[in-house]
Amino acid sequence: MDLFIILVICLSCLILLSLWNRSYAKGKLPPGPTPLPVIGNILQLNTKNISKSISMLAKDYGPVFTVYFGMKPTVVLHGYEAIKEALIDQGEVFSGRGSFPVIEKITQGFGVIFSNGERWKQIRRFSLMVLRNMGMGKKTIEDRIQEEALCLVEALKKTNASPCDPTFLLGCVPCNVISSIIFQNRFDYRDQKFLTLMKYFNENFETVSSPWIQLYNAFPFLRVLPGSHNVIFKNFALQRSFILEKVKEHQESLDINNPRDFIDYFLIRMEKEKHNKESEFTMDNLVATIWDMFSAGTETTSTTMRYGLLLLLKHPEISAKVREEIDHVVGKNRSVCMQDRSRMPYTDAVVHEIQRYIDLTPTSLPHAVTQDIRFREYLIPKGTTILTDLTSVLYDDKEFPNPEKFDPGHFLDESGNFKKSDYFMAFSAGKQAFYVHIRGHVR
């Protein structure tokens, strides 16, 4: 029996190695560490700090290399030149969304962030159009942000300058701005449904970054086991119910000549295309897109504000300069607006440096190539997952001298004017960077 088991194991390994060789033969993938059968390079990667592992591997294999998460090859891009060449210079080919099994299980390929092909193009184009339209209406997105900022200030005043943890309040702000865009109205910070909705998004954001979910994404069959992926599935089911309830309210009060928010715009488009069996404007896409918008703008924005506040507390000399510029340009009798931005180069530089320094999404979401492509001297087959190491761009010491130091000077020229940088890729770049669009409207 022991000999039989050994033979079965050896035969299995030979079959797996043969399959591996075929995958290499299909396209001349970039070099990389030798993968083990079934588990790939999992043991060679620090799942708690993937970006650090990528940087170490890049020293041996260069800016373009291949790693295996399980049996699936992933081409990694390290450094500005490689990422720019892929996401910007050849953005159309690299515009596919890479595999992310735990989210695919939830969205089923609907929505805008985790969809592909014609569906992605249509929903993305429509969503950005609605955001632009709402920015030009009677109550612009900027008005909504100013209103929410005042609500935040009032809530902070109620603490009477006593020590407090602002995490919750900072989370309310972007969530309410997005709520006003999607649901027409904001929520009171004590509204129980609002608090529950925030709780689900916070839990999902923390869970999806955990080592277990990275393991799940490499081996999706683990869904049969108990684990934190079930928390995400449960939360999404509850969030979906909340969204559907809001959609039903909108259907009952819809005026096709006077759309109030994102849901109204989508429902009107659904009605126009109800006889088109190929239409992408369906209830599934509406629910998934709303979920995507909250996911893209809520936790990322609130976390950026929280880290920004901590950095300003740690660097009082920088805080003082920001305060001085705000007092000079804005004064104390009105709210800051986007028109002030061009006259506040130091504050603009501080905001950019916060995003660069905290490096909130080190590898962003996975991309995929939409067709076979010759990239540099390699041939990458259609559908191959692409991972971008944004840390290597944000912490490039040639573009940002002494990158480990928090220094707004990274975005200022010698005259103190704001200096743009092509290396500022806080949330990726190119056609699949929907996070950037959403956060731009929220911010």
From TrEMBL:
InterPro entries named in the record: Cyt_P450 (IPR001128), Cyt_P450_E_grp-I (IPR002401), Cyt_P450_E_grp-I_CYP2D-like (IPR008069), Cyt_P450_sf (IPR036396), Cytochrome_P450_fam2 (IPR050182)
Superkingdom of source: Eukaryota
Biological process, per Gene Ontology: monocarboxylic acid metabolic process; terpenoid metabolic process
Keywords: Endoplasmic reticulum, Heme, Iron, Membrane, Metal-binding, Microsome, Monooxygenase, Oxidoreductase, Signal
UniProt subcellular location: Endoplasmic reticulum membrane; Microsome membrane
Protein name: Cytochrome P450
Family: Belongs to the cytochrome P450 family.
Gene transcribed to yield this protein: CYP2C76
Purpose of the protein: Cytochromes P450 are a group of heme-thiolate monooxygenases. In liver microsomes, this enzyme is involved in an NADPH-dependent electron transport pathway. It oxidizes a variety of structurally unrelated compounds, including steroids, fatty acids, and xenobiotics.
Record's keyword annotation contains Transferase: no
One CC-aspect GO term: endoplasmic reticulum membrane
Endpoints of the signal sequence: 1-25
E.C. number(s) listed in UniProt: 1.14.14.-
Primary localization: endoplasmic reticulum
Membrane topology: Peripheral membrane protein
Listed Pfam families: p450
